[in-house]
Amino acid sequence: MALADYKRDMEGCSRCSSCKWVPFNQIKSWRFAKNCPSICRYNFHAYSGSGRMIIANSILEGRSELNEAVAEIVYRCQLCGACDTACKVYRDDIDLTEVLLELRAFCVESGELLVEHMAVIDALKREDNVLGEPKERRGEWAAGLPLKDINRETCEVFFHAGCRYSYDPDLRDTLRGAVSLLLDAGVEVGIAGAEESCCGGRAYELGYRGEAANYADDLLSRVKASGARTLVTACADGYAHLRYLYPRMGKELPCEVLHITQYLDRLLAGGRLRLRNSLPTLFTYHDPCHLGRMGEPFLSDWKGDKLERPMSLKRAGRKGVYEEPRRLLRALPGAGLAEMERIREYAWCCGAGGGVLEAFPDFALWTAAERLEEALASGAEALATACPWCVRAFRDTASQAGIDLPVYDLIDLAVTAAGISVPAPA
Amino acid sequence: MSETAAKTFGTISEEAYRDLEEAVGPENASREPGVLDGYAWQPTNNDHPTERWVKRPVAVVLPGSTAEVQAVVRACNRHGLKFKAFSTGWGVWCGPTYDNVVQVDLRRMNRILEIDEKNMYAVVEPYAIAAQIQAEVMKKGLNLHIHGSGPNCSPLASATSGWGVGHDSIYMSYSPRNVLGAEWVLPDGEVLRLGAPGSGLGWFSGDGPGPSLRGVMRGSAGALSGLGIFTKCALKLYNWPGPPRIETEGCLLDARSEIPENMGFYLCAFPDRASFLEAVLKMGEAEIGYNALRTATAAYLNVMTPRLFKRLTDTKAIRDLMGKTLEYTIMMVLAANSREELDYQAGSLLSIVEDAGGIALDMSTQKPFVRMALMGFVRATIPALVFRIGGSFNTALDRNDALDTQENWRDACLAIKEEWISKGGILDDMGDNPYYVPYENNMWAHCEVVYQFDHRKPEHRAALEPIFLDFTIAALEQCMEPMFSSDPRVRAIIGPLAGGFNRWQREVSKALDPGEAADSTLYCGEGAFDLSAVDGAKVKRLNELIEKLKPEA
Ligand SMILES: Cc1cc2nc3c(=O)[nH]c(=O)nc-3n(C[C@H](O)[C@H](O)[C@H](O)COP(=O)(O)OP(=O)(O)OC[C@H]3O[C@@H](n4cnc5c(N)ncnc54)[C@H](O)[C@@H]3O)c2cc1C
Ligand code: SF4
Ligand code: SF4
User: Fold this and answer.
1) What top-level class would CATH report for the domain A1-113?
2) What is the average pLDDT across B473-497?
3) Which residues in chain B are contacts of A66 at CB distance < 8 A?
4) Which of A167, B86, B308, B471 could pair covalently with B94 via S-S, beta carbons 3.0-4.6 A apart?
């Protein structure tokens, strides 16, 4: 598909501005009524989902040109999908996120690149991860854990660690905790270790389609070789890409793809995960965009008039992963859940996605701070979430902005409540 | 910027742009073509045969205060530019109509400044949308009138500048009635405070102590930014007998709301027009109803399940059932302070309906429907679904008037729509699609008739202006001054026939806007229909009507 293939979507925009707001049934206050970080921060209509579609249409019609200033508007967006979900409350014929993604690819094809994004892509090409860390150290997080090496052995569950978890020293223990929970439940887990690469999703979002396809091929061949029937990832970003982008690129994995919270939820239901230790805390839960609305599976590549598209194929954000993490939280002994106002498919983003963290860190921080304010307003004592990018964004923001709110990865909470011992790295 | 494109669009001088930047701060001004096109894309209710774009503004500014609005307006006056304001900016009426317009996007002025619980009003800025205000005032047991376009819109814009009926009008009337004082930046940059705030006495009254220019400010349809920019206003609030927050899961069609205890939902159907009108008048006398909406049964199905609707309406028996058997229906939502009061209201309603020979279906027994539709009524979240069937809609706006005149209007529009549906100029919604709301003890009502189309289809776009002309002729047939007289083509025809209101508008504009800085086309501009391709018989009828209705010299 190319940008021009979405002209009808662009022309469908009625300029109602629903894409700037939490779906109206769900507006609970003046303060937390908005859903799009970009328009909230920069205010001109061009910074909304609708505005970017109008820009695209304007360029296609030769009314305006793609230049540096316009490209920067395109990139000052987390690709969080909140606009799309809100638009789809009313519309069946507009796939807003698709237009935003195509617009990115169009910018890249047209040579309107951001140096910060090029640095990410260079890092990817060099080290196979978006952080530019040495490839050979990717598997170090797993040192000493009894995991299978899928490069040589078959396994029941293929565990994909993801870039952020693999390298972020703060989050490595979380990752070790995740696989320890699986091992404790008797699951046979395999990893690719140093051979694991980025899933390629970030490259796709930044508009570098070729790179994304190469990484998809890499993972596809590894999964096939592993014989695994299930792939589990703890990275919400990766989850969305495997569930949505891969099939969209025609590279569907030949196994079930689950996020760790879904797998733990199954273990819990099956009595294989027992949460015993008390965590008497009132938590609020942040829905990561890529686990929630953006994690909705690929449904179809509908080619005809979208006004005729069956509703079951409309991607409206409702089929994301919302219940499993909440069930896990509620199952923590002594813990409570205080919901924020913007949740589920209309949750506010953590700010880190879409290349914003890399290119516009102040905007990423502002977006995360807004979410932390909302978390505080919920009355919660701590925030829990299920994505390493969100955890990183919130912890950094809390410390930089002096916001006193502990931020937890759900995995760590489950490990503590399960009372399992996570072996220290060998 | 390519050369061809540059030739097509107006530009702004360096000096003028610098002045604008100074007025609002450089980060709040833009003249980047891509950004400006975000304001030039105005497809809603745009009946241009080829273009969904309107004129591109030469610059856009985002003022954050009244003083900044004044500075922008003064800069426009100094540099021979025009300004066009909007609050949420939904609809063709928000865009520029000249080549030298500065778009004033009021999005940064978004606060609820005060909620006076005791005196039941809220003071708001332009970009506080209805859903936000409602969420806050409900916490205090209050509610506000939301005009029918829905919760994404600005109650200030509606109260001060444009139209204003909604399906809560039966309880809260319409927007012009609900403005209790306003802060108005006139087209020369001066600030005028209307009503009690004009004497520094707070915001409790729109008519004084202090100047009352409500008629000039607002008139019938609103000045649509043609007479300046409103920066604050007070909105009248009403009783909300429900909970501080309606607990709801889901977003709209998947929604499940907790139904407040003292609310009732009745779909009332009547055998014919006379019984319907009789009953609605009596409901007004009995002072019952929190929401009331008369629309065709088919219209619900049309927006909720458009694909199914298309299939069903191929079947004649189903068409007849929806179109004829359920022709005269009205949805009544009751809200009361106690169970006893609800019983009283429901009892009155049922006996009125029974006396008129109608039936009232208690929809609260239809839990899934009511739980889904509750917010649709109370927060008006449903109307934008009208875009679902074809991606676009227009509406034949009437002039608010007595109940029976509204039925005449509906009949006339139905005939026009049927003609255009059969010609393939608009989509088949079974023709009958009124948005009909009674108000003020149901002594009068508003009825606009919706028609849907896909503006991406050339045959639909080509039909838009001729359809609009047909509605104009129908209005003349009924000696009606329609609310769409804010359209310059309609004003030019109807103004001289209806007391010369167009002349008065021009005079008011001249007096308040000596520098001609406001983009006032929709307030007092005049234009002409393109009659070149219109059926000769229609043109003849138009001319006959103009002749017949001309006031005597
Ligand atoms: C689906 C749909 C249904 C609708 N149904 C109804 C209905 O039932 N009842 C009804 O009354 N209307 C209805 N409308 C019309 C509706 O009132 C307009 O669409 C309106 O534009 C909604 O947005 P808004 O109130 O935020 O005003 P805006 O879109 O911001 O502006 C409306 C007009 O007022 C002017 N304006 C706005 N703010 C200011 C200001 N601060 N100072 C000066 N001028 C200003 C603008 O220039 C524009 O001309 C409907 C529209 C749609 C699309
Ligand atoms: S919600 Fe959809 S139709 Fe409405 S302005 Fe946004 S993109 Fe356009
Ligand atoms: S993807 Fe997110 S940040 Fe980007 S326009 Fe949509 S809501 Fe705004």
Assistant:
1) mainly alpha
2) 89
3) 34
4) B86
